[in-house]
Amino acid sequence: MPNTLKVENDANMVKKSDTAVPKLLIIDDDESVRKVMRFRLKDSYDIVDSGSPEEALALALQYKPDAILLDLMMPKYSGFEVCQTLSSLSFTSRIPILIVSGESSERYQDYCESLGAKGFFQKPVNVEALQKKLAASGIGTGIHYPVPLHVQEAYRHLNYAKGSFPVSERVASEILSLPMFPQLRLDQIRRVVQAVSGSLSSPQIAIPAAQPQPAAQV
After folding, report:
1. Does the pLDDT at position 36 exceed 60?
2. Residue 134 pLDDT
């Protein structure tokens, strides 16, 4: 018997943000993933996040975010159940739900969309493959920080070396600069957005999950 999420659908719980900044709700039981998402998206969104599906449903009703990023595999309640619940409630049914999961898009994308999801992004993202796919569509990109800040010439006096900040170095190698500037026409912006969205939905862009190594015999 599947778990059934119970959420009070009360109009008094709905609280739309007064700020003009779009509000984003991130639902993922992995705190490190939520931290990375907050770091990457904080300049563009007002972010609320939770590792608990039950709490996240209450937050969705309370704040009514502009979009929801949802993981699939979580304890107690899965992302499938959360997606179906959000899509069935009148106060949240119009909120776009984007699945961000390590699970295969080939296996789950159609099913998630049948539950109401508007997109499926497989994590982690293969940045090099993404660049090649966008280039094939005539959209140029570049690694925003090809040389991490702490090893650039301007900061040599701090005596940091490659390997001093492994997380920063990894993130720097993954951040892409896209052709986005004020002079772009609306049709050009849409073309870039559609190309990126279509590329991230491709299974070729995803990095295969690492397989667990067998335990050493002692």
Report:
1. yes
2. 61
Q: How far apart are CA 133 and CA 197, in angstroms?
A: 11
Decide if domain 11-122 falls under CATH 3.20.20.70: no
Segment 124-131 shows an average pLDDT of 63
Instruction: Say which amino acid occupies 159.
Output: N
Residue type at position 47: I
Evaluate if residue 9 carries a pLDDT over 50. no
Answer with the residue of higher pLDDT: 52 or 197.
Answer: 52
Which CATH number applies to 127-205: 2.30.38.10, 3.40.50.1100, 3.90.1180.10, 3.90.1150.10? Answer: 3.90.1150.10
Cα-based angle 23, 148, 189 (whole degrees, multiple of 5): 45
CB 128 within 8 A of CB 174: no
Return d(Cα 199, Cα 188) in angstroms, integer. Answer: 17
CB atoms within 10 A of CB 108: 19
Q: Which residue, 39, 113, 107, is CA-closest to 70?
A: 113
Rounded Cα distance, 128 and 131, in Å: 5
Q: Judge whether residue 55 has pLDDT over 70.
A: yes
**pLDDT at 93 (0 to 100):** 92
